[in-house]
Amino acid sequence: MKLFTHSTILLISMLLVASCSGEKEQASEQDDPKNDPVETVEVDELEHEINEPFLFPFGLEIKGLDPTGYRTACGGDCCSGVKVLEKGEYAIFLDTSDCWEYGYHEKYLLYRGDELIACHEKSFSMGKLHSSFNMRNRIERTIDFENERYFIRTDTLKNSQEKWINKPFETAIYSSGLKGEVQKFVDDPREHRNIESDKDFTIHHNQIEGKATPVVFFNPFQPDYDIEIINAYALQEVSDNEARGIPKDAVFAYSTWYAGGGDLIYGAVNDGVLQVWYSYEDEMLEEIPPYELLLDIDLDVTLFRPDHYILFNPAKGGKNKLMIALDKEEKALYAKYEGQSRQIELRKKSDRMEGKKIISEYEEIILGIPNGTYTHTHDGNWDYVTYKGKNGKKVKFTINHELSAPNNGDGYRDKPLF
To answer: What is the dihedral angle through the alpha carbons of 303, 305, 311, 317, rounded to the nearest 10 degrees?
Structure first.
């Protein structure tokens, strides 16, 4: 494992902690939780000793809180995660960043509505290196923003010792700027991450003379995952968008022209989701063929390029077509409904056989939190999906063969329809 300098650890940790997004999309309007009765929950006003450290869980019963957002990310030797728990007007952010022996940080933020009222942090970083052991610098602090109280304790010890600091807290000088400091780099996992411009991602091509190499999408929130868009010998920015039928508001446009022809790709943003469109130009053609949707990238969900897609028609009671994106091993990656921009993450729960039928069950993940279930049944040339919401309602879907296998039935489609 590579040694990081302290500054590198801090930079990676701050970048990863920023990987933290809130709007739910469901199978049908009938299953939308916004239509369910809203339960009002009263939570007693939190009481604590003003002149003592205000420690997590801040007088709340964790088992009584509801998870409403969760997100993780990893890069190099570091992983981070942010989870939000709520009850009534209170919300707690559980924010962690773990770089193994190089450093660790856990932060708990307590909100009343939109106001941050308390923070509790514990962390360690690598200290002086010795021939047979390393030292750790540890720190713990609590901040009561309502009463302007700040407490802290620190120590340094060998990294083989696991017990946490047990010496008393000391009073520290409170500053109003502490609120901005502890909220820095913490995003709300209850809200979607959105692409707004070309500054929110990177398109990279490692060009090798005479060899086609991948053009990849780099997601700064998931640095360990590059999404391959196409293979190209050369990648050049397009300057004459209008002449090539590319919208003015495209966030990027590239040509892969090589030896008389090449691919054309451009990116368009649809409600925070990046859609990559594709066509092909050839010196023998008078016009560029119409663009097709090549790839759909949702920063919250898309980690891998799907191998193929299956389209489903809704049964009675359903309104919109359903598209399931799958990898080469037939594992579903996400679901998406016609007319909606966001993808729905699917997490496999089980596989089973019933005769010749292959039945796969997936958990629906909305902003990191399990919700309903999707059951995909493959039976010969037929595929079926049943969605079951948390309220128990079901919506059934049957494969649309014409849209799922548009090339005369020769395999599933390799591009998304929407």
So the answer is: 10
Other C-beta atoms within 10 Å of 62: how many? 12
User: What b/e string do you get for 111-145 counting C-beta neighbours within 10 Å, with b at 16 or more?
Assistant: bbeeebbbbbbbbbbbbeeeeeeeebbbebbbbbb
Residues in Cβ contact with 77 at an 8 Å cutoff, skipping those fewer than 6 apart: 1, 2, 4, 12, 99, 100, 102
Query: b or e along 28-52 (b: 16 or more beta carbons within 10 Å of the residue's beta carbon)?
Result: beebeeeeeeeeeeebeeeebeeee
**Mean pLDDT by 10-residue block, N- to C-terminus, for the chain (418 residues)?**
36 37 40 41 73 95 95 88 96 94 93 97 85 85 97 89 88 96 93 95 93 93 90 93 95 92 96 97 91 96 96 86 97 97 97 96 97 97 96 95 88 96
Q: For residue 316, what are the contacts with CB-CB under 8 A and spacing of at least 6?
A: none
Cα–Cα–Cα angle for 316, 319, 321, nearest 5°? 105
